[in-house]
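Inverse folding, one chain.
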């Protein structure tokens, strides 16, 4: 007779069965209950006393439950799936607890701490599908063996179901150009770091805010370029715009909003400033200077400010705004030592930003060289109605390696426009012919030297010139009434082959003393076509020439006169008059009975 005691119910014994053998399998135990057993022998006389009870046993499988797997790791995350990997429980090689499979459980953070089985498999990795984009999840693993399901692992880190790329950065503030009453063109620059493969921009969203409706933003365009024309604006309404970059990870944050624009017919955009000049260069900063666009006095395009843009040569042809000022100079800070940069300027007016200037010369952020000195005052020669040649001398000390001039900038001031100076050209020589002058306008010019440190200060301005053809060449002067200390010259005006010759205002008389060589010196300047030159040195030989002068300046010199000798025109030899000097005048001589001092004086006066 077999008797059973259910420990959970106390020390009560119940008969289970009666058998003729010395072994028996007891069925229908309650799982996880504790039991003990005893046996009674039976013969014809009845039941004997029970045996001692067996050891207490627990009704359970004969194997241990599996241990705990390690915390799962989430890899290859995107917006709908994730791959989980983990390691088996320690001691998994023990035959009494060997893992046969794993249960994967998921917790949706938005729904609290509830766990749901999402898969079961034999491997130590599993791809979880059908995640909801942008939701947060965590995961845990249970090992399974013949004894059942083990305890869960620690939960994984919380993951967000999204693409594994970084969202794009913020584009530059959009600039509104070409504004009219129904449309506007927006331009902007890509986010910094757009070359990074993890955040490369694939497109842009353009958003619009109608100021009259409040701070509500609506998408009005999408494109791959960094510019977009926005149509269908309502005339006279005010708008502002912003840009979002898009990549495989989605939309980025919006840019700063543009300046507010009014949908109305545009003013003229400002012209192009002069090429900026870099001065005062050092390792971390540089000063830029430039000239306003031509025609800046026109009310429809008057400049209100300037945008300064920088290009770091090491980064490619990308331009970034680094400042906005009202002056025509600006110091850029925070340069990286030994990097190369170039700069350009945009003028801004009520219609928006104009086209950029030509870029400056490339500069290297290093300690500065000395800027160049001041060239000599330029001299204007070869003036005519539409051009003039300028010549000048280099700055003193130009051979010094720290300030050696590499080029010269020629600047022009049209007197009729006021004291505004504009760059005409940049050359390597100390002379230059300026073309395209307006006939009869007045101009002056100045020169700046340039070296590796930038532009120097301008020279003193040239004399004012009038764009007018120089006068022609007068006739060869005739020497008349020569004596020991003076001579009278006469000549004819230039032939009036051109209109310019009729404007002769004066004549310059030049003298060459033959004994001194071929050196010519100005004697005087007169308004007539004759002149008596005084203070000649007796017996010296001279020749003379004439220059005509008009509003454009001095013309070329005439041919030189015949050589004359400063001497009395006659001498007397035994009462006979002799010709001592000749001139082009015809003189009639009569013989006196006796030469006397009085008659000699009369001869000298002829």
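Residues assigned per position:
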């Amino acid at each position: 007779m077999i008797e059973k005691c259910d420990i959970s119910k106390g020390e009560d014994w119940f008969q289970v069965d009666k058998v003729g053998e010395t072994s028996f399998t007891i069925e229908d135990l309650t799982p996880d209950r504790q039991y003990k057993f005893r046996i009674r022998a039976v013969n014809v006389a009845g039941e004997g006393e029970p045996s001692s009870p067996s050891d207490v046993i627990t009704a359970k499988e004969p194997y241990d439950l599996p241990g705990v797997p390690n915390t799962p790791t989430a890899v290859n995350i995107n917006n709908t799936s994730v791959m989980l990997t983990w390691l088996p429980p320690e001691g998994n090689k023990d035959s009494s607890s060997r893992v046969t499979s794993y249960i994967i459980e998921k917790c949706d953070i938005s729904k609290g701490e509830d766990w749901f089985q999402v898969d079961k498999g034999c491997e130590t990795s599993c791809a979880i599908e059908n995640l909801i984009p942008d939701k947060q999840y965590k995961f845990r693993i249970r090992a399974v063996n013949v004894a059942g399901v083990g305890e869960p692992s620690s939960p994984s880190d919380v993951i967000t179901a999204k693409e594994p790329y970084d969202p794009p950065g913020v584009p530059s503030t959009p600039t509104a150009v070409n504004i009219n009453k129904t449309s506007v063109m927006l331009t902007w620059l890509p986010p910094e770091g757009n070359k990074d493969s993890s955040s490369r921009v694939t497109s842009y969203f353009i958003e619009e805010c109608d100021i009259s409706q409040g701070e509500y933003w609506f998408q009005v365009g999408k494109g791959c370029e960094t510019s977009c024309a926005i149509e269908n604006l309502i005339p006279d309404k005010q708008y502002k715009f912003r840009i979002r970059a898009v990549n495989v990870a989605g939309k980025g944050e919006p840019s700063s909003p543009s300046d507010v624009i009014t949908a109305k017919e545009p003013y003229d955009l400002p012209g192009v400033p002069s090429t900026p000049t870099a001065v005062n260069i050092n390792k971390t900063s540089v000063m830029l200077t430039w000239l306003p666009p031509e025609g800046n006095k026109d009310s429809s395009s008057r400049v209100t400010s300037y945008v300064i843009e920088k290009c770091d040569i090491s980064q490619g042809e990308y331009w970034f705004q680094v400042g906005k000022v009202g002056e025509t100079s600006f110091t850029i800070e925070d340069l990286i030592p030994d990097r190369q940069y170039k700069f350009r300027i945009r003028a801004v007016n009520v219609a928006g930003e104009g086209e950029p200037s030509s870029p400056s010369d490339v500069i290297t952020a290093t300690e500065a060289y000395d800027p160049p000195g001041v060239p000599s005052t330029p001299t204007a020669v070869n003036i005519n109605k539409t051009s003039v040649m300028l010549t000048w001398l280099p700055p003193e000390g130009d051979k010094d390696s720290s300030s050696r001039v590499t080029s010269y900038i020629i600047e022009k001031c049209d007197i009729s426009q006021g004291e505004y100076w504009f760059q005409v050209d940049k050359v390597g020589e100390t002379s230059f012919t300026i073309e395209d002058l307006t006939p009869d306008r007045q101009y002056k010019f100045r020169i700046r030297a340039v070296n590796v440190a930038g532009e120097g200060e301008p020279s003193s301005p040239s004399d004012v010139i009038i764009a007018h053809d120089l006068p022609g060449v007068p006739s060869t002067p005739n020497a008349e009434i020569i004596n020991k200390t003076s001579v009278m010259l006469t000549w004819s005006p230039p032939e009036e082959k051109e209109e310019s010759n009729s404007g002769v205002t004066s004549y310059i008389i030049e003298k060459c003393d033959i004994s001194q060589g071929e050196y010519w010196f100005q004697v005087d300047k007169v308004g007539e076509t004759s002149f008596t030159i005084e203070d000649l040195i007796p017996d010296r030989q001279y020749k003379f020439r004439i220059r005509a002068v008009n509003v454009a300046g001095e013309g070329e010199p005439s041919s030189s006169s015949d050589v004359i000798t400063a001497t009395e025109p006659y001498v007397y030899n035994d009462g006979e008059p002799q010709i001592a000097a000749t001139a082009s005048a015809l003189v009639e001589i009569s013989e006196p009975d006796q030469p006397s001092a009085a008659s000699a004086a009369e001869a000298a006066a002829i």
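Residues 580-590, 592-606 have pLDDT under 50 and may be disordered. The chain is about 0% helix and 40% strand.
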